[in-house]
Write a structure and sequence with these properties.
single chain, 158 residues, alpha+beta, Alpha-D-Glucose-1,6-Bisphosphate, Chain A, domain 4, eight-stranded antiparallel β-sheet, 49% strand
C-alpha cells in the first residue's frame, strides 16, 4: 500500500485556490493466471465483484479500447458517472478516468504482473481537485478492497 498526498495553495489573478492530490496503490496476489484475471477485469458488463460500481452500461463482450466512454452506477450514490478508457495494454494495464462531478478528477489504473508466487494485481487510484478529501473519505474503505475482490473473483472461475 502506497499513499501520496499533497496540498498546494495557488495564488493568481487575485484568487487563492487550493489543490489537493491523492494517490494510493493497493496490491493483491492471486493464484489465477493473468489471462483469467484480465478477462474478469475487461468484462465491463459484469462488475459484480467491484465494491464501488454496481453496474456499467456496456454490452456483453465489449472489449475496452482507448477512447471508449460508458456510464457507470456506483453503490454509494445514485449519481451516474462516466468512465473514459485512457490506456489499454492487454494482459498488463487498464487505465480509466472517472468523470463524475466538477471539482474532482479521478484516475484508476489496474496493472497485472505474473511472477513465480502468483499474479500480482495492482489497483491505483489518483484523486485531484478541491473535493478529493471528501470523496476519499467516502470511498477509502471500498477502494482498499478492489484488488483483493478482483483476485478472488478470478479464482472462483478456475
Amino acid at each position: 500500500m502506497i499513499l501520496n498526498f499533497s496540498f498546494r495553495l495557488i495564488a493568481g489573478q487575485g484568487k487563492l485556490l487550493c489543490q489537493f492530490s491523492l494517490c494510493k496503490t493497493y496490491r493483491a496476489v492471486s493464484h489465477a493466471p493473468v489471462d483469467v484475471l484480465w478477462q474478469k477485469l475487461v468484462n465491463l458488463a459484469d462488475v459484480s465483484w467491484h465494491p464501488l460500481f454496481s453496474k456499467i452500461d456496456a454490452p456483453i463482450g465489449l472489449i475496452p479500447k482507448p477512447g471508449l466512454i460508458c456510464q457507470a452506477f456506483t453503490r454509494l450514490m445514485p449519481i451516474p458517472v462516466r468512465l473514459f478508457v485512457e490506456n489499454v495494454r492487454p494482459g498488463k494495464l487498464l487505465s480509466i478516468r472517472v468523470l463524475a462531478i466538477p471539482g474532482i478528477e479521478q484516475r484508476i489504473t489496474y496493472q497485472m504482473e505474473s511472477t513465480l508466487r502468483g499474479t500480482y494485481v495492482s489497483y491505483s487510484i489518483t484523486l485531484r481537485g478541491w473535493l478529493s478529501p471528501l470523496i476519499w473519505w467516502l470511498i477509502r474503505p471500498y477502494s482498499a478492497r478492489v484488488a483483493a475482490e478482483l483476485a478472488h473473483a478470478a479464482e472462483r472461475i478456475i
